[in-house]
Amino acid sequence: MAALKFAKTHEWIRLEDDGLATVGISAYAVEALTDLVFMQLPEVGRQVKAGESIGEIESVKAVSDFYAPVSGQVVAVNGVLPNELETLGKDPYGAGWLVKLRPSDTGELAPLLDTTAYDALVKSQPH
Amino acid sequence: MPTPLLETPLAGWHVAHGGRMVGFAGWTMPVQYASIVDEHLATRQAAGMFDVSHMGRLAITGPAAIGWLESLLTRHVADLAPGQVRYTLVTSDEGPTSLAILDDALVARDADAADGTPRLALVVNASNRDRVVAWLTSRLPAAGVSLVDQTRGTAMIAVQGPLAVGIVTGLCPAAHAARIAALGNYRATTATVAGRSAAVSRTGYTGEDGLELVVAAADAVPVWEAIHVAGAGHGLRACGLGARDTLRLEAGMPLYGHELVAASDPFAIGLGFAVNLTATDGSPRNFPGAVALRDLQATPARLVRVGLLFDGKRAAREGSVATRPGDATAIVGGVTSGSYCPTLGAAAAMALVDRDAAAAGTRLDVLIRDSATPARVTPLPLHRRPATRS
Predict the structure, then answer these.
(1) Is residue B273 part of a domain?
(2) pLDDT class of B56 with cuts at 50, 70, 90
(3) Which residues of A touch B (CB under 8 A)?
(4) Tens digits of per-residue pLDDT, B340-370?
(5) Which residues of B touch A (CB under 8 A)?
(6) Shared domain check, B189 and B113
(7) Residue B96 burial (C-beta neighbours within 10 Å; 0-12, 13-18, 19+)
(8) What is the DSSP letter of B2?
(9) Hey, is B164 helix, strand or coil?
(10) Which fold has domain A5-121?
């Protein structure tokens, strides 16, 4: 199992042994959002481009989009998550996954941030 | 270069206690400390304390102060007793309709000065303070009234919730505690709280019982900390502007810039009670904008303010369009404020809708990010506290 990579927009992605990529949102993003109340996931089968909004997550205060870190096809979504949003806080890199993509070009993972670079990005944020 | 944000005397406390600071109406204020939901529910179930020092506090004194405010505000001032507070609008007669609502405010009459001079206070919205001060200053008579903006020299702390009065009175000498406990709604007094002088009123913006305290800026941190410590064992939490907004939304209270704007018809948004067009002696009042307000009162508006309740948690936000069910072209109005509401456990909103779509129980669709979301019209307030005080 490959290491996590991160988008600057706070999604994580992990290339699995079966060639699919699992996507979620970082613990930092979940903590920053707080008070999650609603999530909309994309439809299975949808073709997405890197950087495209593939859903929304809403806290009491605001609505945020989340974005596909790489291009590809949505092959699965974590359908129980919208009804169990607390899972995002408890296990953001495991049971709190959002979607599985079949990447059209795994080369798009290369420019994403590794854990060290992402941690540095987070530390530079205001809180 | 952007203007630096103003800090209340409690800004350092907020940062030290994990407050997430945001810019609001020119001030840096905590939107939340940890969870808006937890802060909201603490206020409903026990108590919440809020730094509302960004609100504008204007002292209006002098032998002609009462008559002057009576001539300017939509609400009767002449018959205010010392220690009484009223909600009012501040209007001007400028603009194409000869009416602009500059703000909504609380006007309070404090105890007279020792020489009998009347002393009054206006609490105005932070976002409108500059223009309200400018407007009032432009109308000051040559003598007899003094207007002083005391916002920066003081702090204002709201303590709200069923346990709020008990927590604050526990920090007062017995006689002062009894005086505060006996205050009716919209009544005010002065007291020593945690050893410091405070103006104390039974007012708030949450729909709960509670108090608002005004203290000298230098006393803000010690008074705040004393209340915070005294309330901790009772479930009191420090709350940010996020919870303040969800609490007032559930309580059906308008927020200037959202439900209430310069061109609003107060009679259509449930604020007719704040417009006294007739003096207590039966004569017509002529405050700025009174003529236009008489016309508005005589002509029912097309749009009226209602509550909307959703089945789910996805919130409509300001600007979301409301339509007849299943017909996206049949627009009947729009949302002015909306959020997930923690006490209701569902999303809710306030909206301005056509009068014939405003009956309680009317089914509407609200477009939330292009998704037609069913809602039903619900009387305001969306949440009402139990009638008896604990």
Answers:
(1) no
(2) very high
(3) 34-35, 37-38, 40, 56, 58-61, 63, 127
(4) 999 999 999 999 999 999 999 999 999 998 8
(5) 20, 31-32, 34-37, 242, 246, 312-315, 317, 339-340, 342, 347, 369
(6) no
(7) exposed
(8) P
(9) helix
(10) OB fold (Dihydrolipoamide Acetyltransferase, E2P) (2.40.50)
- The single-letter code of the amino acid at B26 is G
State how many domains chain B has: 3
* For range B332-337, the mean pLDDT: 98
Asked whether residue B374 is domain-assigned, the answer is: yes
pLDDT in tens, B104-162: 999 999 999 999 999 999 999 999 999 999 999 999 999 999 999 999 999 999 999 99
Q: Is B282 left (phi over 0), alpha (psi -120 to 50) or beta?
A: left
List pLDDT tens digits, range A43-86: 999 999 999 999 999 999 989 999 999 999 999 999 999 999 99
Cβ partners under 8 Å of residue B53, min gap 6:
B8, B9, B10, B151, B154, B155, B156, B157, B220
Q: Which domain holds residue B45?
A: 6-52+153-250
The pair of three-digit structure tokens given for residue B293, joined into one six-digit string = 């307000």
Structure token digits, residue B230: 């005294």
Domain ranges of chain A: 5-121
In chain A, whose CA is at the least distance from the CA of B247? A60
ipTM: 0.88
Return d(Cα B262, Cα B289) in angstroms, integer: 12
CB B126 within 8 A of CB B55: yes
CB pairs A-B closer than 8 Å = 42
Q: What is the pTM of this model?
A: 0.95
| Identity of residue B22 | V
Last residue of a domain, one of B114, B149, B184: B149
* Paired residues of B213 in beta bridges: B157, B200
